[in-house]
Amino acid sequence: MNNTQVLHPAHEPDATKHSTGYHPSGDGGSWFAACAVHDVPDNGGVCVKYGEEQIALFKFSRRGEWYASQNLCPHKQQMALSRGMIGSHNSEPKVACPFHKKTFSLKTGECLSGDECSIKTYPVKIENDLVYIGITAGGND
Amino acid sequence: MKLVIIGNGMVGYKFCEKLLTKTEAQKFDITVFGEETRPAYDRVHLSEYFAGKSADDLAMAPTDWYASHNIKLHLGDPVTHIDRENKQVTSHLGITLSYDYLVLATGSSAFVPPIPGVEKEGVFIYRTIEDLELMTAYAKKARKGAVIGGGLLGLEAAKAMIDLGITDTHVIEFAPRLMPRQIDEAGSKILQRKLESLGLKIFTNKNTSSIVGHPHISAMEFTDGSSIAVDMLVISAGIKPRDELARQCGLETGNRGGIVVNNHMQTSDPAIFAIGECALYKGMIYGLVAPGYAMADAAIAKIISLDTPSGDGGFTGYDMSTKLKLIGVDVASFGDPFISGDDCRTVVFEDTVKGIYKRINVSADGKHLLGGILIGDAEAYNMLLQTCKNKVVLPPNPEDVILGSRGGSEADAGAGVAGLPGDALICSCESITKDAICNAVTANGCETVDSIKKCTKAGTGCGGCVPMIKDLVLHTMKAQGKYVRNVLCEHFSYSRQELYDLVKLKQLTSYDEVLDTVGHGDGCEICKPAISSILASLWNDMILKKGNDTAQDSNDRYLANIQKGGTYSVVPRIPGGEITPDKLIVIGEVAKKYHLYTKITGGQRIDLFGAHLSDLPDIWSELIAGGFESGHAYGKALRTVKSCVGSTWCRFGLHDSVSFAIRIEERYRGLRAPHKLKSAVSGCIRECAEAQSKDFGIIATEKGWNLYVCGNGGSKPQHALLLATDLDSETCIQYIDRFLMFYIKTADPLTRTATWLNKMEGGINYLRNVVVNDSLGIAGQLEAEMQLLVDNYKCEWKEVVETPELRKRFNHFVNAPAEKDPTIAFDDMRGQKKAKW
Lengths: 141, 837
Ligand SMILES: Cc1cc2nc3c(=O)[nH]c(=O)nc-3n(C[C@H](O)[C@H](O)[C@H](O)COP(=O)(O)OP(=O)(O)OC[C@H]3O[C@@H](n4cnc5c(N)ncnc54)[C@H](O)[C@@H]3O)c2cc1C
Ligand code: FES
Prior knowledge:
The complex is a heterodimer of chains A (141) and B (837).
Chain A: E1 22-24, E2 30-36, E3 44-50, E4 53-60, E5 65-70, E6 72-73, E7 78-79, E8 85-89, E9 92-96, E10 103-105, E11 121-122, E12 124-127, E13 130-135
Antiparallel strand pairs in A: 1-2, 2-13, 3-4, 4-5, 5-11, 6-7, 8-9, 9-10, 12-13
Chain B: E1 2-6, H1 10-20, E2 29-33, H2 55-58, H3 63-68, E3 71-74, E4 79-83, E5 88-91, E6 96-98, E7 101-104, E8 108-110, E9 123-125, H4 129-139, E10 144-148, H5 152-163, E11 168-172, H6 185-197, E12 201-203, E13 208-212, E14 219-222, E15 227-229, E16 232-235, E17 239-241, H7 244-248, E18 259-261, E19 272-274, E20 279-281, E21 284-285, H8 289-304, E22 322-326, E23 329-335, E24 344-351, E25 356-363, E26 369-375, H9 381-389, H10 400-403, H11 409-418, E27 425-427, E28 432-433, H12 434-442, H13 449-456, H14 466-479, H15 496-505, H16 511-518, H17 527-539, H18 554-557, E29 561-562, E30 568-570, H19 581-593, E31 597-600, E32 606-611, H20 616-625, E33 638-643, H21 657-668, E34 677-682, E35 696-700, E36 705-709, E37 721-727, H22 729-746, H23 753-759, H24 763-771, H25 779-791, H26 796-802, H27 804-807, E38 825-829, E39 832-836
Parallel strand pairs in B: 1-2, 1-7, 2-3, 7-19, 9-16, 10-11, 10-16, 11-12, 18-20, 33-34, 34-35
Antiparallel strand pairs in B: 4-5, 5-6, 8-17, 13-14, 14-15, 20-21, 22-23, 23-26, 24-25, 25-26, 27-28, 29-30, 30-32, 31-32, 35-36, 36-37, 38-39
The structure holds flavin-adenine dinucleotide (FAD) and FE2/S2 (inorganic) cluster.
């Protein structure tokens, strides 16, 4: 995984025409334009609406990286991860849920606080100042 | 290989979970039948259902866990027949399945004594979530309650009745004392007195002869001719193993119930196992969950290696020591609690005022602990249990172990764990030994409780052993020669106090600056709020200033308290608890408009719950227009200064406590500290404002004010200590300035003033020297620093409301700003809403 977090080959979405919407990514998934880069606070998160789903999107400015995950914390089913603090544990990027401070890897979605639960993560890429979240056809894991 | 499990209770579930960790698990085709309609849940914490936990919270694992591990789960479908000859089971709904191995984990049911009238409406048992739902529904019409049985479960049921709003509840015990199996006469007395002071009515030596009423219970009659009026009754007179299936198919069962098993949990038919509360091992039913889990281990070991010759090992009985909290009172017993006679010495400590009773039984030579009882304060339980189980040699004065080490408790705790042998079981839920934990530290580099949990699973069950794990980690690290410093987290190798000084010295003003200058890495949820708090305490800038916003704890970032379900609560400041009718109307109008639940808090203000994130700025602009400002309920900051009505109205009042409370609250409002701060001012010694339970409290005297500090309410109440007497208002404020600033500068993160003082060498005398006698020569500096903060105060909410860029951050969806979180829903309760979740 590299710094810009592009997991799928980019399909050159025409960002100027579609400010939101789907973009085929070439391998069964698609890129979804979530918001503008400046809509997300530095080193913080926002919640993105994708159909019925809620996705937490994080701008890790300190590392020049972007991450996305499900917004629902699996610990006690709270829609809250986008409001959590991000940081690192042994350089693994993570988010801490505001409710009970369970932490999850933003790369693998694994719970880093010793619990069994994990979260789904999504690839993110930036083009023309827009943030795209990669939605895979069959779900991520 | 077909494996069928009958019963999806705690032990039946644990059996599955443990089996799945074995590589051999894939050889098995697993089917589970459960009689209850819900997947296994945590029966041990059943009573928390009344404290607001939902059935989902209590679930051991969600329904899809079974499917995702290829376990076929049939709920609401009990097995009704076992055909041992053809190795088949048949269920109520008509499913017939063959098995190679069958596991009975049918648990037990409540034992109901044959008292005439037990079938009447309003008589309940206490075992399943269904029972609790029935009780909840019925309790609405009940006013007087009773519980038959003063044992562990009976007392828990009594607490449940109180939680259901039946404050007039009786406990009826047949034996001469409460909890006769676990604790002795003297202990029972203390417990009884303590429970009575909490409102329970307790009868011992009482035998119920009949239950009266038609069609529902209206009274109970006793063999001594007395009776009481009751309209709801819970029977909790013991348990009865569910062995009916075993009997029906001819397995050996005990005279008084229970399925007879050997040490591998095999019944008289070697292909059939029984585990948990239905199993009878050496004439004993183990009515606790931990032995049930150990039985599951033994059964699994046997099933997966059934071909190997059966040696020893397996289940060898289980220690029945327990610790629990009954209606807020700690009760614990371990080892042999009752032993007496020539071979032993008994040491008893009793404090009838505080309701504490401790008994230890020590071997005649004073070397070993044989057992004991703890009531009212069971903090030492883990240590004592280990000392007892592992035959650790006692200190020269055995009483030290219950009277507490006098001086330097931490050093002693360390020495305590050091004395345990390597095979001492530290976590009994997951069977993890001391060696395994120490090994995780030395070999795997675990240096935190979290990493130990991950690496060994220790501490992931009931959590009771976590303090011991902490001690063990520290102790092992020290033994390795690692310098254990109180560093903030992996990103900063400084203590909070060191960081405070560094930030000040280097004039750093944002989290990133601090991280770049004195830290490393990317930060985390521990150092971000701690440093944000330091920055706020030093400079009192607007906390949401760009760059610092995302380093705030979530509550600080949104200037509101996040609540269950993801809504927020709003608390405007009401200094001293004084409010005009007009302002009350403003709160009422705002609450109505935004559909908020309102409640008066313990701190004399009004909390508005259930606000959508995106409504917060609008709610606050209306509150601010109505003359309110932020109450900082979301921050580690000054909360409220409570007051009694004082000399203006009260005929006892010596001074005007309300005016002084308002002055204090306005002086320190918004003050950020290592933890929240509470205060109160009482107008006379009657102390209606409860100032002595606050971080700093003020009580009027004939000559001025007495200043108390470092008190605490909450879960660990601590009386505040007198710092100075008969002060005039100016001096009082001067001392508070110094006290607060000294605390802010030197306390560890998330440490309340009470804990801070407890850890301070020299205690209150040292603190008094610093604050009153200026022994460090910093009084002037402390006052100046406080004055800076006071002068810099601004209402955070006002700034947000007036700044569009900041307001934008309160939308739930970045790409649909007008939409609210659709997952938020509410239920009705007493004419208001509550979180549906
Ligand atoms: C209020 C309360 C508080 C407690 N507090 C504590 C405590 O603090 N500490 C502690 O260690 N223990 C405590 N216990 C005891 C603990 O809950 C039990 O020891 C534990 O639940 C036993 O687990 P089990 O799986 O053997 O039985 P259960 O959890 O009772 O599970 C058995 C399951 O099998 C089902 N079943 C029965 N027959 C059939 C059939 N024919 N077909 C299909 N399913 C069937 C039952 O419906 C039930 O769901 C408490 C119990 C209660 C009720
Ligand atoms: S709900 Fe997220 S940590 Fe508990």
